[in-house]
Design brief:
The chain is mostly beta strands. It is built from 2 helices and 46 strands. About 5% of the residues lie in helices and about 55% in strands. Strand 7 and strand 8 form a beta hairpin.
Length: about 525
């Protein structure tokens, strides 16, 4: 009878195991059967070098010792007493195989771009039974992984693969994620880990110091960047134009007004790409002309519109004035003069002021097309017996087509006639016409002289008298009324002169009036 029989055993591959078999008082042949096949005769198991029959033969001990159990030892064993025709109960030897060390694909460092989800795959191969896999982060098990098992060709071992998905919002660079694989052979499991390396484009900050800053002072730009992988290149530009002489993270420059409108940009590059950031400088600068006003020439009664635009920082104030006048006409870019008159002609100033920084101005001219305007001293002096002159000043846009002096029955436009000479001189402000008389006689002090100018818009006349220098001229009797033609009939002015002039004077006046009609 068997006093000891082999029992079902579970053993981890690589460990030794002993299957007991004791048959007291039996001295015949003992065989060990594995899955129905004899391993050898008696104690001779030379075909299985890891197998040995041990025990005291005289006491009937025939134990089977297996060194370093392997997967092929996973079988059913029996101990048989051949001459006694006895066999033990079948004993199942179950061999457990721990999984190989788990492997996370892409480890030990898994890199991904910022904003991308994390997909990890861990596989534990050649295990019996199949390995179970868990994922651990910061000591906590991560749920939601997917698993798949594959039976190997030997029909005994299996490989396990686990796939873990993590959304971008719950992963951080530097985190360590563990894959732990376990089965009955290794209850505590085997594990491996990866470190998460989140790569991103450079995160850039561009500082400007100091600001605000007055034009002409030094400003320092500093481009600080965090990047993974590291920064490989800094590139600077102003207003879109590359600054080739600067290559580091700092740019120093003396600023002018252009830095207020043309931004300075810093482009930082790493292996993933580039990030560009730009800043304008709050530069304080005096007025600079953006739209230069143009001088105008308009017809009488039309509107005149000047446009004047300035830039400046801080905000500027614009003032329109007429030169020589303290009256502010406009505080806007546009100056509109409605239905201009001839007295509106002149110089206009567009002035811009940036408080505590500076001021600037631009002058333009307004020319009004209309009839000539004559301004002259109505009584001019001369010495008896000397050369004398009388002058009239004519403003006219367009320039006068004709200027004539008339007295008595004489009309003279230019050149010399007897004692009289007419000369015309152009100036920046207008035309000066001079009537020169040689050898002044008393009758010259009794004559009325008329200066008349014409252009395409009309005419104007000025009546001038000559007075003896140092003397006084009286007048007696009635007066005769003369009308002077002006810019408008409503603006006609009148001059009165003594009636004691002779008939020639009357003819001269009538001749002049007829020419003006």
């Amino acid at each position: 009878m068997f006093s000891q029989q082999p029992q079902d055993l579970v053993v981890v591959a690589g460990q030794p195991v002993t299957l007991p078999c004791t048959i007291p008082s039996y001295h015949g042949v003992v065989l060990w059967i594995k899955d129905g096949l004899a391993l050898g005769v008696g104690r001779d198991l030379s075909g299985y070098p890891r197998y040995t029959v041990i025990g005291d033969h005289s006491s009937g001990e025939h134990h089977l010792r297996i060194q370093r159990v392997e997967l092929m030892d996973d079988a059913v064993f029996e101990c048989q007493a051949v001459q006694a025709a006895m066999r033990s109960r079948p004993a199942r030897l179950t061999v457990l195989v721990p999984p190989e060390d788990p492997v996370i694909s892409g480890g030990p460092v898994v890199s991904l771009r910022a904003g991308d989800p994390l997909n990890l795959t861990c596989h534990a191969d050649n295990a019996k039974p199949a390995a179970s896999i868990i994922w651990i982060r910061n000591g906590e098990v991560l749920n939601g992984a997917m698993y798949a098992k594959t039976l190997l060709r030997d029909g005994r071992r299996e490989s396990t693969i686990s796939m873990l998905y993590l959304s971008p919002s719950i992963i951080e660079t530097g985190q360590q994620i563990i894959c732990r694989a376990s089965n009955k052979a290794v209850p505590n499991g085997k594990e491996t880990s990866v470190t998460i390396d989140i790569q991103h484009l450079p995160l850039v900050n561009l500082s400007v110091d100091p600001q605000p800053v007055l034009e002409g002072n030094l400003v320092k730009f500093h481009c600080s960047a965090k990047a993974n992988p590291p920064v490989t290149l800094y590139r600077w530009a102003k207003g879109g134009n590359i600054i080739n002489e600067v290559s580091g993270d700092t740019y120093e420059v003396i600023v002018d007004h252009s830095f207020f409108t043309d931004p300075v940009s810093c482009e930082v590059t790493n292996a993933l790409g580039s990030t560009n950031i730009s800043r304008n400088v709050d530069v304080y600068f005096g007025p600079r002309m953006a739209a230069e006003p143009q001088s105008l020439q308009v017809d009488l009664g039309s509107d005149a519109v000047f446009n004047c635009a300035w830039t400046g920082n801080p905000s500027l104030t614009i003032v329109w004035m007429k030169r020589g006048s303290g009256v502010v006409l406009s505080n806007e870019n546009l100056l509109t003069l409605k239905s201009v008159r001839q007295e509106d002609a002149g110089k206009y100033v567009c002035r811009a002021v940036v408080p505590r920084v500076g001021a600037g101005e631009k002058e333009v001219s307004l020319t009004v097309n209309g009839p000539p305007t004559i301004s002259s001293t109505q009584t001019q002096q001369a010495l008896h017996g000397e050369k004398g002159q009388i002058k009239c000043f004519i403003r006219s846009t367009p320039p006068p087509d004709r200027i004539a002096w008339s007295w008595k029955e004489t009309v003279l436009e230019s050149g010399t006639s007897g004692r009289y000479t007419v000369e015309t001189v152009n100036t920046d402000d207008g035309v000066i016409s001079t009537l020169t008389m040689s050898n002044i006689v008393p009758a010259d002090f009794q004559t009325i002289y008329n200066c008349t100018a014409w252009n395409s818009f009309g005419s104007d006349t000025e009546i001038i008298r000559l007075k003896e220098q140092g003397g006084s001229q009286g007048s007696t009797g009635s007066t005769f009324l003369f009308f002077k033609s002006g810019q408008h009939k409503d603006d006609s002015r009148e001059e009165r002169c003594p009636l004691h002039y002779d008939r020639a004077v009357m003819y001269s006046v009538i001749y002049r009036l007829l020419n003006l009609m």
